[in-house]
Design goal:
CATH topology: TIM Barrel
Number of helices: 12
Order of helices and strands: EEEHEHEHEHEHEHEHHHHEHH
Strand order of the largest sheet: 9-8-7-6-5-4-3-10
CATH architecture: Alpha-Beta Barrel
Mean pLDDT: 91
Number of domains: 1
CATH class: Alpha Beta
CATH superfamily: NADP-dependent oxidoreductase domain
Largest sheet: 8 strands, parallel
Shape: globular
Helix content: 25-40%
Number of strands: 10
Distance between the termini: 40 Å
Low-confidence stretches: 332-336
Strand content: 5-15%
Radius of gyration: 20 Å
Length: 336
């Protein structure tokens, strides 16, 4: 297996921002997260080990959110950054979800909430700005004009450099409308997007990717390994008979524990064998080679797991192999 010493992540353009991003971004949603059994999934020491490993491989883009670990993720990243050159790293965070029980105004993207939360997350990160601020979900209670005016104010104040949207695949028109409002008023538009996308989840193909291309929005997918399905850890027979413990959610069962998904995995396994890589590395390499994807976001529980995922950057796929993977699981717009 490729080691960290052999990995040197390249920089690629982050859409129309002018920024360069690591070809694999590092997601920290497991930092400080408690399992259903009350166990800490990743503690501070291991979080710092993972960040060290990512940086050692040349990684420079760190993705978090103010709800990850109840703010612990941002705090631990900030502590880690304190001993390093902050300007060498692109830090992205997200806001939306409720942070105080019983307080309806601690959720959403109204002006009061946005201004309060940006100041709090900057304090946890120990920095005076984030490079990308994502809207974690769309807030239908806040008019797009109000949202874009407020976000533009954060950019003008120097607290945020660029704006992003997360998990808005069904709402491509809402992003387009918001960007048109921003354009009309000379405000900062959305220039980065973070949707779910992988070899099985193809829901953004069609209108959403076309919208991103039209507006110069960088696409940085989360769940590029399909909640672990594309790593090869799930057995076809157990998965299809319902005996597998993999059914963590209705979405997982409906999307991944299907004949079609396992057929896609068969193609992935075949290509992985051809290029002498793991299924996870090959699935990530497919996104690295994807013309419409800026950089997928990878996560890991352990350093060896992260090392395997980052090894995807060393995997070379031919055009024919990319096409085979792309055609293995038809997206919803494949026949249009």
């Amino acid at each position: 297996m490729t080691t960290l010493d052999e990995i040197d992540l390249e920089s690629v353009p982050l859409g129309a921002t002018g920024l360069q991003t690591s070809e694999l971004q590092f997601g920290t949603w497991r930092f400080g997260r408690e399992t259903a059994e009350g166990n800490l999934e990743i503690g501070e020491d291991r979080a710092h080990e993972l960040l060290d490993a990512y940086a050692a491989a040349g990684g420079r883009y760190i993705d978090t959110a103010d709800i990850y670990g109840g703010g612990a993720s941002e705090k631990w990243i900030g502590d880690w950054l304190a001993d390093r050159n902050r300007d060498r790293f692109t830090i992205a965070s997200k806001i939306f979800w409720q942070i105080r029980e019983g307080d309806a105004n601690s959720r959403g993207t109204n002006r009061k909430t946005v201004r309060e939360r940006i100041d709090a997350l900057l304090e946890r990160l120990g920095t005076d700005h984030v490079d990308v601020l994502y809207i974690h979900r769309w807030d239908d209670q806040t008019p797009a004009y109000e949202l874009m005016k407020t976000l533009n104010g954060l950019v003008e104040d120097g607290k945020v450099h660029y704006l992003g949207t997360s998990t808005l695949r069904p709402n491509a028109w809402k992003v387009a409308r918001a960007n048109e409002i921003a354009r009309r008023h000379g405000w900062e538009p959305f220039t980065v997007s973070q949707p779910r996308y992988n070899l099985v989840d193809r829901e953004i193909e069609g209108d959403y990717l076309e919208m991103c291309e039209e507006y110069g929005v960088a696409v940085c997918p989360w769940s590029p390994l399909g909640q672990g399905f594309l790593t090869g850890k799930y057995d076809r027979e157990d998965g299809l008979t319902g005996e597998s413990l993999a059914a963590e959610s209705p979405h997982f069962a409906d999307n991944y524990l299907t004949e079609s998904a396992f057929d896609t995995h068969d193609v992935l396994d075949a290509v992985a064998d051809e290029v002498d890589a793991t299924p996870a590395q090959t699935a990530l390499a497919w996104q690295i080679h994807h013309d419409q994807i800026a950089a997928p976001i990878v996560g890991a529980r352990t350093v060896p797991q992260l090392e395997e995922n980052l090894g995807a950057a060393t995997v070379e796929l031919s055009d024919a192999q990319v096409d085979r993977l792309s055609e293995a699981h038809d997206g919803p717009y494949a026949n249009l």
